[in-house]
Write a structure and sequence with these properties.
Layout lengths: L5 H16 L6 H8 L3 H7 L3 H26 L3 H29 L5 H27 L9 H13 L1 H4 L8 H16 L2 H5 L15
Helix pairs in contact: 1-2, 1-5, 4-5, 4-6, 5-6, 5-9, 6-7
Length: 211
């Protein structure tokens, strides 16, 4: 079997070790020993352990932000945009759960430009989602009495907490969970007129879909 590239091995090893021992509980020497490379190999790919932590954070946040922008451009209405973003947000826990777990456990150790760059991407994502909610309120799809800012934070908080409980081998698939989240938000946000018009029907649960 072909050996994985050094950078990939360093990241995979660091994810396991950071999650188990904490960021400050792991040294560069321990990482390179565990993954079978050298300090030269480490510093060829990362200038420091801080940059490695930044990369772990950045890889999934950049992916998430790009998916949100793609969804906004692809879909033409707020309901489809919101549900598409909720779906891609949920799916990321199937792709990057170790990265996200380390992020929530160790993000306080990001400093300087690394922290600034990550926070800017997180804020851009939040602003895009909030914009979609407001667009839905403006066109009559979403209830105006529910504040867009609180709705945005509720969506992000609901999905972010998956890092504590989602298991790939669990009873529900990631797609099942995304459908449940979309159904919950649509029943909370859609106006009576939008519901009668069938807005979001393709994102709502069917009685036989999830037990």
């Amino acid at each position: 079997m072909k050996k994985k590239p050094v950078k990939e091995r360093i990241i995979e090893t660091a994810l396991i070790m950071f999650e188990k021992h904490g960021y400050h509980g792991v040294t560069v020497d321990q990482i390179v020993d565990e993954c079978g490379t050298s300090k030269g190999g480490f510093y060829h790919n990362f200038r420091s352990k801080d940059e490695l932590l930044y990369h772990i954070h950045d890889v999934f946040i950049s992916y998430l932000l790009n998916k949100a922008k793609e969804t906004y451009d692809k879909e033409s209405d707020p309901v489809s945009r919101m549900c598409g973003i909720i779906t891609s947000f949920t799916r990321i826990f199937d792709l990057y759960k170790p990265h996200i777990t380390v992020f929530y456990q160790e993000s306080t150790y990001l400093k300087g430009d690394f922290e600034k760059q990550i926070n800017e991407k997180r804020e851009e994502y939040r602003q895009l989602l909030q914009q979609i909610i407001r667009e839905g309120q403006d066109n009559g799809d979403f209830r105006p009495e529910v504040p867009a800012q609180i709705t945005t934070m509720a969506i992000m908080g609901m999905i972010n907490w998956m890092y504590k409980w989602f298991k790939k081998e669990g009873e529900l698939s990631i797609e099942d969970i995304a459908r449940i989240f979309n159904d919950m938000m649509l029943h909370s946000l859609l106006t009576e007129e939008a519901m009668k018009a069938g807005k979001g029907d393709r994102f709502l649960l069917k009685t036989e879909s999830v037990q």
